[in-house]
Design goal:
Largest sheet of chain B: 8 strands, mixed
Number of strands of chain A: 11
Order of helices and strands of chain B: HEHEEEHEEEEEHEHEEEHEHH
Largest interface: A-B, 44 and 46 residues
Number of helices of chain B: 8
Distance between the termini of chain B: 15 Å
Helix content of chain B: 25-40%
Radius of gyration of chain B: 17 Å
Strand order of the largest sheet of chain B: 2-1-5-10-11-12-13-14
Distance between the termini of chain A: 46 Å
Oligomer: heterodimer
Number of helices of chain A: 11
Order of helices and strands of chain A: HEHEHEHEHEHEEEEHEHEHHH
Strand content of chain A: 15-25%
Helix content of chain A: 25-40%
Structural class of chain B: alpha/beta
Strand content of chain B: 15-25%
Radius of gyration of chain A: 19 Å
Chain lengths: 285, 245
């Protein structure tokens, strides 16, 4: 029985410059933020991200970690646009492969199934092919002869996802209403890391949710990291909602050089324990 | 009634977008579209399915922000199945829209270094390639109704050729001034009706491309029952904040 429990820093040690990293969750929902914060503190650079983008993308862009982004959107949900993402885009600082969000799903599914591509109607007629270097179409070999987008497999070097509960071997459940695409991210990746609110015994994991909520099994996972409140400030229902006040503090700070320096110094320069301590001291009021 | 507002007219115009849809998923993006979709379900389109904006389908039609019992589960992954299956009518916003219905919610300026970054194309390409799509523009202006959009997200009629056109169905655009469709020559945008109190010239002046104004009506007023329901759906008056009178 392999015990896959590792630390946040162990995850960073297994990543390297230039990797393509998929980040689970959706917008400002159930993002593996503790792992994102660890990457922020690391020397990692030149990363390509694949994400249904939220503050994970914004924060990694803030520290210059991202050289390329594969995305359909980046949004904080209750705040429409992520200001760090907007800033690096308007500075022309990152490359992008901008696609319909359904094309991200198709690309992950192709990678998960070890296919070179999957056909999809989304993208046809739009400007997605205009700005996606090398994106091709495929013609149906059947009588319909339809020409469809051939969404290339989005193969990931590593996947980072955050779930509500896991066991030490890598089985993991979501106890909120939406699995998002965390299983696809893991299946598309070479190295699969699952952070969670709490690591529990397998029997307790099984008892904690209906069987349909058992999203990840241990053959899809290489490392399990217990990070309580580790999705903060994104939502991780039913354990906690999004911290709207903190999200607003983040979004507001980006607009001002001094305010951002203070925000980064207060929250992002220490380790995860000091982050969790800092957000509890009422600075968000 | 004397106290009918422009916002009430807009909400009813949005509700009317769903008139022929039957039993499909209504996906209204934003508050006014949400109000309109809920009004439709309480009046002319009772078979519509409506989500809570997260992962559930609502069994009842509650006020904006209120909870309801559920009748189904629709996490994001299943929404993509619905999109591809075509049983959906989405109402999206538009930072830019052109004469043939090409829409932009991605960015302004050159794509490699935009002057302004918004969401990204989101589901615009997939929505317009797969099922009926309408747009809601709360402030009709020549900055939104442009000659050419910077990043085609939702696909318009001139680009909906081949497979892109197989299920393409951009239905209507509702704004704070008017209702428009694509019934002009070559599916060009056409002014269907101006809201009561709006002159055709005001719409033309706020549209940078040439608009077909050959047959313009007046957008209908809400009925007494619709006004009553609007206050039930939107007791806090969000619609009046989006479209001030």
């Amino acid at each position: 029985m392999s015990d896959k429990r590792i630390s946040i820093d162990d995850v960073v040690d297994q990543l390297s410059d230039g990797m393509t990293i998929g980040i689970g969750g959706w917008g400002s929902r159930r993002k593996p933020m503790a792992l994102v914060r660890a990457i922020l503190r690391s020397s990692l650079t030149d990363l390509t991200l694949v994400s249904f983008g939220g503050p994970d993308v914004g924060l990694l862009c803030s520290a210059g970690k991202v050289s390329e982004l594969v995305f359909g959107f980046v949004s904080l949900d209750s705040v429409p646009y992520d200001p760090w993402f907007a800033r690096v885009r308007t500075e022309g600082a990152i490359k992008t492969r901008e696609v319909d969000e359904g094309m991200v799903v198709a690309g992950l599914r192709a990678a998960a199934q070890r296919l070179p591509f999957l056909p999809i109607r989304a993208g046809l007629g739009s400007d997605v092919p205009t700005y996606y270097d090398g994106l091709k179409t495929v013609v149906s070999p059947y009588a319909d002869g339809e020409e469809l987008i051939a969404m290339p497999a989005l193969k990931l070097d590593a996947a980072l996802v955050h779930l509500n509960r896991a066991d030490a071997r890598g089985n993991a459940i979501y106890t909120g209403p939406d699995p998002y695409f965390d299983d696809l991210f893991c299946l598309a990746a070479t190295k699969r890391f699952v952070s969670c609110e709490q690591i529990v015994e397998t029997a307790d994991l099984v008892a904690a949710a209906p069987p349909q909520a058992m999203l990840l099994n241990r053959m899809m996972v290489d490392g399990v990291i217990e990070t309580p409140n580790g999705a903060h400030f994104t939502s991780c229902v039913p354990d906690y909602n999004r911290d709207e006040a903190f999200q607003k503090e983040y979004a507001t700070a980006v607009g001002d050089v001094d305010a951002w320096a203070a925000f980064a110094a207060r929250y992002l320069e220490g380790d995860e324990a000091s982050y969790q301590a800092a957000i509890k001291t009422g600075a968000t009021a | 009634m004397n106290d009918i507002t422009r916002a009430d007219v807009c909400a009813v115009a949005i509700a009317d977008l769903f008139l022929t849809d039957g039993e499909i998923l209504a996906s209204p993006m934003g508050t006014m579209p949400m109000i309109g979709a809920r009004l439709a379900r309480l009046t002319t389109s009772p078979d519509l399915l409506i989500s809570d904006g997260e992962a559930f389908l609502l069994a009842e039609t509650p006020a904006i922000g209120a909870s309801s019992p559920i009748e189904g589960w629709l996490p994001y992954r299943k929404v993509f199945d619905v999109v591809a299956n075509g049983t959906r009518h989405v109402i999206m916003g538009a930072n830019q829209i052109d004469r043939y219905g090409n829409q932009n919610i991605s960015c302004f300026g050159p794509h490699d270094k935009p002057t302004r970054q918004m969401f990204g194309v989101r589901g615009g390409p997939g929505n317009t390639a797969n099922h009926r799509t309408s747009y809601w523009v709360p402030k009709h202006s020549a900055r939104v109704f442009v000659d050419a959009v910077d990043m085609v997200s939702g696909v318009g009629y001139d680009r909906a050729v081949g497979s892109a056109g197989k299920f393409h169905d951009v239905h209507r655009v509702v704004t704070n001034l008017a209702v428009l469709d694509f019934g002009g020559t070559d599916h060009a945008m056409r002014l269907v009706s101006v809201h009561p109190g709006v002159e055709v010239d005001e719409v033309v002046e706020n549209t940078s491309f040439e608009l077909d104004t050959s047959n313009v009506g007046i957008t209908r007023l809400p009925t007494d029952e619709e006004l009553r329901l609007l206050d039930v759906i939107d007791p806090k008056g969000f619609r009046g904040k989006e479209v001030p009178s």
